[in-house]
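Continuing the series of single-chain predictions for the mutant panel. This is the parent chain; the variants come on the following pages.
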Amino acid sequence: MAKKTVAAPAPAFFPADWPADGPIDLKVHDLPHLSSSTEWWYMHSHIKAGKRNLSLFASFFLTVVGYDKKAKKPDYGYSVIWGISDLDNKKYHTVSLVDKRAPELGIQRIKKGQLVKDPHLKRAALEMLDKGVVPYPDELLTRDVVIAKDKLSLDYDGNTFKKKKDGSYMLHLAHKELNISVDIEFSPQKPPTRHGDNGVVRGVSAEDMFYYFIPRNKVTGKINLKGEKLAITSASGWYDHEFGAHPEKKNESDEAKKDVSWNWIAVQLDNKCELSAYDLVDLKTGEDCGSFIILIDEKGNRHHSRNYSFKPFGEEWTSTRTFNTYPTAWKLVAPDFKLDLVIEAAFPNQEFATVISKPAFWEGRMNVRGKMRGKAVAGPAYIERHGFVNSSDLKSFLKAVSKQTLRSVNKIIPLSFGQQKFEELVSKRGNYHLTENLDKEAYIDTFLRPIREITDRSGKSWRSYATIACCDVVGGNSQVAIDWLALPELMHVGSLMVDDVQDKSHVRRGGPAAHTVHGEATAINSGTAAYFLGQICIYEADMHYEEKVQVYNWYFEAMRASHSGQAMDIKGLDYMMPAALKDDKVAKLLAKRVLATHRLKSAAPASYLAQIGALIGGASQEQIAALGDYYEKLGIAFQIIDDTLNLKGFKDNLKTKAEDITAGKITYPIAVGMAMLDQNDRKKLWRIVSAKTSDVDQLAQAIALLDKHKVIEKCEREARTMLEKAWWRLEPLLRDSMVKLNMRAFGWFVLDRTY
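Parent structure:
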């Protein structure tokens, strides 16, 4: 949506405890403001500790969560977040501590229709919160927050921010499990400066806020980073304080009407100037809710402008935890300041995951270079990008997964490549002689293009997501395995291409099946090759030899199982019907045979892929087995629901033609029906199925026979019960986390799809 720029309106009112015109009195305004519904104290620092290079940020929040009508005062909730960017090792360490009452408050808000809109995520969130926990990486504060009224002194579970008598600020952060602690002191080197319109900015819900900052501080102290004791040798720091007025209606059920997102940057240049800029945008309307750039010159003087451009460019980075996509490079141009800067991320993976912020934002160290007043400048910076999420529900989330899966497929099997990739695709890099005199364009057209035509139409990618999710849910880092998204997709597409030849299907993913375009021989060859092209993911993986061997074993076990299932699917169950029509025991065996085929053809690959993901994530053997079992049951349940939807679509609206009956296929509901019907009705049902009719009256009669015993409903209950039992075997083995919450919701989503 195009961005519409409007002038920022004046504040609805100017609270008495906001700074008046003139210098900001830090002795007064560093303290909490009674008029505020939201307030935070934020600081960041760029640090050298010997040869080590780090950046860190921290923010202490208080937010009104209700209003005590009797006491006539607001009720506050508290949280503190902080993160360290290890620039040398390109690692991002984060901590998020939320209010002790967060589970209770979360349940209340969700039940009021706030926070979570997707029904499956809502159900999963309520289930987790009802246990009295929040999803990791958020954790609960264990003690009451202590905030002094007469001085700046914040204590959030031992994480503290305090002001000393000499005007410097002390920051202490610690997390025992992560083995990280920070003890640093900020000493202001420039006076506080108003941001926005003389200090007034728009808040995230379009409320009025006051915002000041100290753009440069000397920083001293020490850091413990996972046992590495680091004494700061040189560092610079930044301090922000922002607070906003209570809404006029002090009602805890009030919900913000705007959906405001923002980009914010703070830069410390080597010419002793600093600058900060922000863009606030209402994503629903495209309205500019406030945009300012503030430049602080060498002497500490403030210069402001709205005439600037702050835009991302180049490649984006996608998180495998949230599948949000973030820019990693920006261009900042401010003509009034003769400023032209290029800003690049020190490393991409600086996403801060937290349910505080739907469900993540990007805040990280940037490196700046460019010109100011015609002279070269450089320096460190922080950028925060908040609210630009790719998905608010599971359907759009899976679309984001599919988009990234296609990127990974394109990386593994591109349609344009150099000699080294050519060698890799044919056999192995270095095997030049196997590509010598080979017509590359003909190779692409007859070998790769048929596969890419199917993958590029984009499937649901739930198998790819399962692999990544199983890595994260056991505490692994799926970001290093992002290209493993291609492995399940190539496995699946290969089977589809060959299946379409075997089944004589002409349509696949909304387009022509591969064999209708390229011929059966090419489709079979390329489809089969897709299985082996995925091997590149394993070959290039940064894993121990023993782990790679295990992945190879699981992969080929999955292939054998799925092809065994395909063989039984091709065979069908017609051969059992003469006996099944007469013998109740044989009739009951039909459903077991269908499940055996589903287990092999669909469930086994899902199970093995889940186990591969868990292995990459460093799971225990117990976790690997339980995740494999859960995704096996999900694969079976998926196929059962698939079978029932084919019949429900016809039953409910006659638009779906009950193609499975027309194809004469004994699906799970048909098999279950055969076991429940008496012999006379069994024969009637088989007569219709074996006739492969498309006659509407005959199809309706077949479904009516199944409805005598509510077969479709029984099959659906069985699928859901099967999955629930598998979940509760798995659930105690996994830490309560955002990924676990998504995994729980995802299972329901897969089974709740409609025709």
